[in-house]
User: What shape does this take?
Amino acid sequence: MKKTTTQNSKKTLNNLKCFLGIIPLIALIMPATVLSQTSPASVNLGTSGNFVILAKTGITNTGNTSIVGDIGVSPNNATSITGFGLIADASNEFATSSLITGKVYAANYAAPTPAKMTAAVSDMQTAYTNAAGRSPDYTELYTGNLTGKTLTTGVYKWSTGVLVSAGGFTISGSPTDIFIFEIAQNLTLANGATITLSGGVQSSNIFWQVAGQAVLGTTSSFRGIILCQTMINIQTGAAFDGKALAQSAVTLDGNSINNNTAVGLVALSLENGITLFPNPALNSVSIKNSNKVKLDYLAIYDVYGRLINKIDLRDMQQEKMINLSDLTTGIYMLEIQSNGARTTKRLIKN
Assistant: This one.
């Protein structure tokens, strides 16, 4: 009996050693995906959320950048917004630019703009502090190198910088899931790196709190809202889907900047929900927005593809009358944009 007991003990010990030996192998073959946590509460941006780019010391641009949304600077004045060819509005409350589908605000423009900008910057700093103070679900994950990984909802914290190399990484979850990344040093997106969203995740629900600089490499593709204590540097040809909110400066170079949320759904709503009446039209045409999608602008092109007029639609509700009296008889293409999604309607002018 004693011999049998000893043999069983040895067998149990050998089985345990075998099991413990398998654990590292399981870790190697498991996919690089973080398991889901309960989604944290969102970060309240306050009035800073009205801007696609907001900075304290300046916004500089080189090249043919395209921005959809408002931008602004405070406490610095409009001279710190360069490379846009700003055109002051008659009210002097804001400026416009051919590169921006939206308005440009600065601290030295006419009231109520200074107060508006002071509040927005204060809200931006409050949001930064809120995001930085969240209790993490994960700390020092992957030692800050997210390349090739898939992250799900939660609060992530690093005492170092975070790197996404050319291989990119994926953020996976539902349209209501929130993601908060607390980064004590720099955020670096390498040249050509792409952040992919899966499962309906919204860029507006992804918050990058960055104590150092945020550097988005050439031709990279970024998703989310950056709350940065220092500079946001968006390099040549990079695409940015979200908001760039910096407590110093933002630099641009031939970029596409949008705040796209569920572009596919918006595109479908535009295609099915936007109608023109009457068509053919004489001196005016009514644009009807039956799905109540928030619109950005209307661009009118002639049959040769030349831009004839560009009209701001952000204040439009369900219907807007467009004056056509300046157009000659002919066929025109009306391009309507919302959050980066576009639909084109054919219009006959009598």
Remarks:
- Residues 2-29 form the longest helix (28 residues).
- The two ends are 106 Å apart (CA to CA).
